Each structure stands twice: as C-alpha cells, then as structure tokens.
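S2.1 Query sequence (DUF1877 family protein)
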Amino acid sequence: MGIYLVSVEAEDWAEEEGFGALVGVLGEALAARGAGPLTPPEPRPAAAYVRGDGSMFEEKLYRPMDGFAALCERVLAPAGTEALLGWDVLLPLPLDGPFTVTAAGWDGEEATVHSAHRALAAARRLATAVALPPSVPAHCDNLQIGVWFDRVRESGTTRTGAWTEDLDTAFYTAVYLRAAEHALRRGCPLVYS
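Output structure tokens follow.
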C-alpha cells in the first residue's frame, strides 16, 4: 500500500477534479493574503523527457514513519514539523503560515496549504541531523529515492554515518528535502495522490 507524493504538472491545472478543483479557491486565498500569484509550471515537452531529469517528482511513501516522526519531534519545533508534514498542498510560494481551502472535487474537500520555503528549511535541519549523504538522488521522477535506499539496504556493503542507523528515517528525510527543493526549483505545487 502507501501513497504517492507527486508534483502537479501544467496539465493538472485544467482538470475538474484533483488539483484543478483547487486552482480558483487557492488563487483567491493567496490574493486575500497578498501572496502569489499562483501560476502553473512550464509544460514539459514529452519528446524531451529524460528519466531523472528533475522535470517532475514522484515518490511512494510506504515505509514505517515512526523513526522519522521521532526525529521531527527531537530536531524541529512544532511549527517546523507542521510545515514539513501538515499539508495537503505544498506551494512554491513564501507564505506567512498555513491556511485551509475548501473545494468540491478535491479529495476530502478541504486542503491544508503550506509553503515549500518553510518545508525546505525544516527538511534541511533534519538532513543535517542525520548527515544525509550527497549521493542521495537529487531528482526523483520515478521513485529514484526509494530505489536508491532499497539498493543500499540490499547491497550488504558497509556504509557509515548517522543516516545508516535508520534507513526508513533517512528515506523520509530525503523525500521531503527533495520534494521541497523540487517545488521551488520547478515552481510547481506538490500533493499526495
């Protein structure tokens, strides 16, 4: 089982359900806060796509999160944990704080929105705390982070560093770090699917 953490692509903005159902109310909520505007990312030309090129984000979240939750509690203030985990929509905009919008057509109708800027700051603190290695994939369009951690686990080679003490915790640290980086680099929201 599990859920996916995915980038919202340009074509998703026009759909009647999912993220498309939120576009109007998000725009209104951002305008009321003096933030925004909310614009779709540049469309990806299908012919130019290369796996791992950083043009989209997709990772499956199915590993145990207990160690990651404990790490958040140990390293982050409650606001940092909330910025990292307390959202349904992560926007590539600087926001003063989270807010909630309601839209028919969105799963659950309510969506909590956070800033990727705040999530990135929290994720960087966690990455430092576990000494996440630079060899973790920088881009993830097809589960590359999960595959990388699976290979580490299966390889049997001895690796050192705090990140090796709990690979599931290091996995989630890497996923949330790379997700926030992706949102800001590509200028696109991220959602769970």
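The beta strands are 3-7, 58-61, 89-91, 99-102, 110-115, 190-192. The chain has a mean pLDDT of 91.
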